[in-house]
Write a structure and sequence with these properties.
The protein has 275 residues and is α+β, with helices and mostly antiparallel strands. The protein is 44% helix and 12% strand. The protein is built from ten helices and five strands; from the N terminus they run ααββαααββαααβαα. Strands 1, 2, 3, 4 and 5 form a five-stranded antiparallel beta sheet that branches. A hairpin with a 5-residue loop joins β3 and β4 (152-158). α7 (185-192) packs across α8. The longest helix has 30 residues, at 57-86.
Length: 275
């Protein structure tokens, strides 16, 4: 007999007819069966025959067990969530572990020339060009180095401006348009700061000190192009990733080892205004 087939008049809970007694026995049997199934899978919850709030000895003994099982269930859920995340099955970034390749192409350094040629009347077109990534499809990087020396002095990027203009702003009043160190008190003061260059946090200021120092010979400049893979916009941030990667690889003498600072950006703006 199915307990759910009883009419509403026999469901009040106080009926003592044979039919209700048989149904109650069936319900108890079903409860025992469910309890046995939980036991089989080691889910040892107490039988739920008594109403919520019952204070009989059996229910009071069951309360700590329920609380303990609830705690264990929560701990298990948290552990599973952690394992899932550690296994890469959670809501994690899609970039896999291992070596990361930049989503673009670096042309390599090209077109070496002296600062005198760069500042002269007819520098090569790539040093005066102001490429627009949306139409030209590439961005420009530049490398400043001392002639016959492998380690560069500075690595930078030119976005929305030319390499020539960037170098002019960096070396303003330090190197003349003839490519010579300016014979001024400012240059002499910069040169005297060489002993403290390691504590300076501005890469541009370091470059100016290096360029002013008598030990640094002829300064030359190279350029490189960067193109983006399909689906990646060639933004200033994209170009800066390549600039930063090359700084890490080549360790310029002006290298600070951190992200481009606000101080550098402000200094460049001020230099551009003075130029």
């Amino acid at each position: 007999m199915n307990a759910t087939s009883l009419s509403k008049s026999h469901r009040a809970g106080g009926c003592g007819c044979r039919r209700c007694r048989d149904a109650a026995g069936t319900a108890d049997a079903l409860t025992d069966t469910v309890a046995q199934e939980f036991e089989a899978v080691r889910e040892n919850w107490p039988p739920m025959r008594h109403a919520h709030g019952c204070r009989c000895a059996r229910c009071r003994r069951g309360e700590p067990l329920i609380e303990r099982l609830a705690d264990q269930t929560l701990s298990t859920a948290l552990r599973h969530a952690q394992n899932r995340a550690e296994a890469g099955q959670g809501f994690e970034a899609q970039t896999p572990a291992g070596k990361i390749e930049l989503p673009g192409t670096f042309s390599g350094w090209r077109g070496s020339l002296t600062v005198a040629v760069l500042f002269g009347p007819n520098p090569p077109a790539m040093f005066t060009r102001k490429p627009k990534p949306s139409t030209d499809g590439f961005g420009l990087l530049y490398r400043v180095y001392e002639e016959f020396k492998q380690q560069p002095l500075y690595i930078g990027m030119a976005f929305g401006t030319s390499i020539r203009d960037r170098i002019l702003s960096h070396l303003y009043r330090v190197i003349t348009k003839a490519g010579q160190k300016a014979k001024t008190a400012q240059v002499a003061n910069l040169a005297q700061r060489m002993s403290t260059i390691g504590s300076i946090q501005s890469e541009i200021e370091k470059l100016r000190i290096l360029a002013a120092h008598p030990s640094v010979g002829t300064i030359r400049v190279q350029y490189a192009t960067v193109t983006a893979n399909p689906g990646y916009p060639l933004t200033p941030k994209f170009l800066h990733v390549f600039e930063a990667a090359l700084q890490v690889l080549e360790k310029p003498r002006s290298y600070v080892g951190s992200a481009r600072t606000f101080e550098d950006a402000l200094e460049e703006l001020l230099e551009d205004d003075l130029a």
